[in-house]
Amino acid sequence: MSELTSARVSASTRTVERALGLLADVAEHDARTLSACARSTGLAPSTALRLLRTLETSGFVTRSAAGTYRPGNRLVRLGALALGRQPLVDRARPSLQRIVDHTGESAYLVIRGGLDTAIYLDMVEGTHSIRHTSWVGRAIELEDLAVAGALRGERTEAGYLAQRDRLEPDVTAIAAPIRWAGGVAGALNLLGPTYRIDDATMHDYGRVVAREAGVISSHLAAEAGAPAHLEEVR
Amino acid sequence: MSELTSARVSASTRTVERALGLLADVAEHDARTLSACARSTGLAPSTALRLLRTLETSGFVTRSAAGTYRPGNRLVRLGALALGRQPLVDRARPSLQRIVDHTGESAYLVIRGGLDTAIYLDMVEGTHSIRHTSWVGRAIELEDLAVAGALRGERTEAGYLAQRDRLEPDVTAIAAPIRWAGGVAGALNLLGPTYRIDDATMHDYGRVVAREAGVISSHLAAEAGAPAHLEEVR
DNA sequence: AATACGGTTCTATTGCGTGGAAGCTGAGTC
DNA sequence: GACTCAGCTTCCACGCAATAGAACCGTATT
Questions:
Q1: Average pLDDT score over chain B
Q2: Half-sphere exposure of A93 (CA within 13 A, CB side)
Q3: Does residue B9 register a pLDDT over 60?
Q4: Per-residue pLDDT for chain A (234 aa), expressed as one digit of tens each?
């Protein structure tokens, strides 16, 4: 029965899955070449070409004169639409900005992705010349990162979670959960070079991050309706 | 032979096109129901269901407990990625903010979409209680709108284009082109209710919009590299 | 010149996408 | 409760169209 179900479970069209895989591949690696797409998705070049052409005529990818593929206007548009439907982005922007104003480090808005992933949804870039570069759109495995704890709603009594050199060496992360109706809507996450953040400043920054996460939380609480991406909870 | 060529011309997989159509449909109308998707895309319900399931297992759409479809995490993620690759978004944000600070009206960043469409990429929302509501992600036909002229690089000697009650009644639009290397990278667009914008304020706002477009233009000129979505021009 | 590699076109094969039919559920109506 | 209707779902036989390999071309690389 196991194989029967596993065969049955598919309920999914191979062609479309492959095309979506290609779309993701192009979106993740800018200026991708056909053969690179074919290799990384495990498709025959001719198949990849045909599917990419389909994506191209549909406007989801563009092909430059050099022959490389990049995200197309249609994807950008749908992305803007989907992001516009994420109410957290608007709510969090001022807080991200205030964190940057206070700390000079890059500040991110993070939400849950699948089961064990987090998505970096938005950022305000830090002002130091050495700073964390953009991770917007990146998805990471949660594992036991600071931001993972925050997304699970954990907090120290200080209101934030911090971790040094965990995800990447020399990067210190400070995270705090954005709460909503008993659940967690997302998290704020500050990322900066470890050498610039000693224990005292870490605590200082942590309090700022925690405070801003609290600000957003109370905004959410004051509003009717649920953040779209939490709807399924009800 | 006519049917032979028309069959040949496709060079495009029907299945994928249909799936992408469904994806766009879901992204455009939030909380879409299966039958609505099937109807608006002209698919048999069973076909639409199977394709939507594929999109669902791939994470491009989510299905709520109520059975309605909405943009999934994967789409949000790819959207954030694609938008992050649009250098204009970062560059334009401060200008949009300054326009809103000065005018109180909603300000948009617009880029060319396909041949005759424009995409509302980003916005900063106005502060008046009656204001233009979000169009982020929306695509419009260019026709002879103010923003269309701006995207073609047209300018009056005052540096901006304005139009009353054209796209929608009671909406006044003020637009100015963001120039780059002899081409047009995009446009800034202010939208507000006509009753609040008489000729004098229109001119005042127009100067602000034109100035900010100029600021972005000179930033672009000062940088190496091209905005990604203009690459094909070279 | 020789080689290798990426891109493209073409085509026979058959895998699989398709849509109609038929159950199923739940909501609305009398 | 009985009836109806609409939306959702499953199933399946049919036949279209997606597939991958072979062959060809243009372009770097040595």
A1: 83
A2: 14
A3: no
A4: 333 333 334 467 889 999 999 999 999 888 899 999 999 999 889 899 999 999 998 999 999 888 899 998 899 889 888 887 777 887 898 899 999 999 999 999 998 876 678 888 888 888 876 677 767 767 777 777 888 889 888 878 888 999 998 877 888 999 999 988 768 889 999 998 898 999 999 999 999 999 999 999 998 887 645 445 554 432
In our burial notation (b when 16+ CB lie closer than 10 A, e otherwise), range A109-122 reads bbbbbeeebbbbbb
- Rounded to whole angstroms, the maximal C-alpha distance in chain B is 63
For tokens 């269901």, the residue is B49
Question: Å between A11 CA and C12 C1'?
Answer: 28
Best of A83, A86, A122 to substitute, by most chain B Cβ atoms within 10 angstroms, is A83
Tell me the C-alpha distance between A102 and B169, whole Å.
44
User: Closest nt to B54 (CA→C1')?
Assistant: C17
Q: Of A123, A47, A59, which Cα lies nearest the Cα of B80?
A: A123
Pairing of strands A106-112, A183-193: antiparallel
DSSP secondary structure of B105-141: SEEEEEEE-SSSEEEEEEEE--SSSS-PPP-TT-EEE
**Mean pLDDT in residue range B96-117:** 88
Kindly tell me if the per-residue pLDDT of B130 is higher than 90.
no
- B163 within 8 A of B202, measured Cβ to Cβ: no
Dihedral angle sign, alpha carbons of residues B88, B92, B96, B102: negative
What would the two tokens of residue B151 be? 């995207």
Bases of strand C lying below 7 A from some protein CB: 5-11, 16-21
Residue B65 DSSP code = T
The answer to whether the CB of B16 falls within 8 A of the CB of A19 is: yes
CA of A35 to C1' of C1 (A): 27
Residue B216: partners with Cβ closer than 8 Å, 6 or more residues away: B88, B91, B92, B95, B178, B185, B188
Give the CA angle between residues B122, B101, B228 to the nearest 5°.
25
Q: How far is CA B97 from CA A94, A117, B88, B115, B128, in A?
A: 12, 32, 14, 29, 14
Angle between helices B73-84 and A14-28 (to 10 degrees): 30
Confidence band of B182 (pLDDT split at 50, 70, 90) = low
Q: Alpha-carbon distance A200 to B99, whole Å?
A: 39
Give me the residue from A50, A120, A138 closest to B13, CB to CB.
A50
